[in-house]
Amino acid sequence: MSKKTGYLLGILLTIILGTILYWFFCCNCDTGTADADANSKANTIETKSEVPAKLDTTMNAFAISDANGNLSFDINDNINFKTSDYHYIEPLSVEVDNGLTKLVDYLGTNPDKSIDITGHFRSDETNTSAFPNLGLARANTVKNYLISKGLSSKNINTFGRLDDDFIADSNAILHGPLGYSINTMTEGDSSETDALKALGETIKADPLVLYFNTAEASINLTTAQRQKVADMVRYTDKVDGALLSVTGYTDSSGSRTTNVRLGQERADFAKSYLVENGIAANKINTASKGPDSPIASNATEEGKAKNRRVVVTIN
User: Fold this and answer.
1) Distance of alpha carbon 123 from its chain centroid, rounded?
2) Once rounded to an integer, what is the mean pLDDT over residues 241-245?
3) Residue 209: pLDDT over 80
């Protein structure tokens, strides 16, 4: 073999060997990189799947329809509330206000019909109202607005409904947490009359009693007390001439004149609290008996504490 041929064979073997080594090392590197990229993408996808999906805001339209009548409208707006609040956001839109007026006019010309208003509330809201839940409190504020437009409270029923699927927007506003249903009332319904009579007897037998510390006027209702408020509101809504009676009492410390004034201040404070919570002021009478009619001995601090009270009942 000539030197030239040997030289060419050496070059050829070098090229072949280089190609083999390149394939062995570099292709394996690319495979490792590809595997790493695949694992990275898989991890990225897995991480993204762990992020909770953003819940859509609930946007209820203001819609009311009477299946057995000629009232029907659907307004792309509603009465809205901030979370943990029972006061609707003002001002109402012109469209919503016109819808409420149309509802009042319809029920006014159809006195045999009533409207059920159901207020929705979430379990994570804080109830600062005098009602058992914020849903009932919200329905009550809408009821009062309808009454201000001339509708009789006898034609309105209010309810509360727990609804954790009702989602607030990013500003913590609930858009239309209300439901409406029109019903036909049964004239002379004896069961309703009997139920209201029994409710009145229960309220009188077990009135709402609020206790106050010396020279203090503040109210923080228990769950049972909120239910009593709701019962009294229902009774005064449905029974002609029914009123709430709010009477303030004190212990015997100090002069009678001072105590009568203090008892009246407590009664007036309790009335303001009830009015703030949506009970019509003209349905509440206040009075003071000061140190009169104690329910416990004024000789002990425990007895005095029981005598410093406001009694809310019906008459």
Assistant:
1) 9
2) 95
3) yes
**List of residues 6+ apart from 263 with CB closer than 8 A:** 247, 248, 249, 250, 288, 289, 290
CA dist 84 and 172 (Å) reads 9
CA-wise closest residue to 156 among 113, 116, 102: 116
Residue whose tokens read 């000629």: 70
pTM attached to this predicted model: 0.80
CA 21 to chain centre: 74
Please state, in angstroms and rounded to a whole number, the distance separating the CA atoms of residues 117 and 104: 13
Q: What are phi and psi of 133, to 5 degrees?
A: -150, 165
What is the DSSP secondary-structure string of the chain? --HHHHHHHHHHHHHHHHHHHHHHHHHHHHHHHHHHHHHHHHHHHHHHHTSPPPPPPPB--EEEE-TTSS-EEEES---EEETT--SBPSSPPHHHHHHHHHHHHHHHH-TTEEEEEEEEE-TTS---SSSSSHHHHHHHHHHHHHHHTT--GGGEEEEEEE-TT----TTSEEE--EEEEEEEPPTT-HHHHHHHHHHHHHHHHS-EEEE--TT-------HHHHHHHHHHHHHHHHSTT--EEEEEE--SSS-HHHHHHHHHHHHHHHHHHHHHTT--GGGEEEEEEETSS-SS-TTSHHHHHHHSEEEEEE-
Q: What is the pLDDT of residues 27-36, one digit of tens each?
A: 554 444 445 4
Cα 98 to Cα 8, 113, 124, 167: the distances in Å are 100, 20, 33, 26
What pLDDT sits at residue 29? 47
Q: How far is CA 272 from CA 122, 152, 166, in A?
A: 27, 23, 31
pLDDT tens sequence across 269-300? 999 999 988 898 999 999 999 999 999 999 99
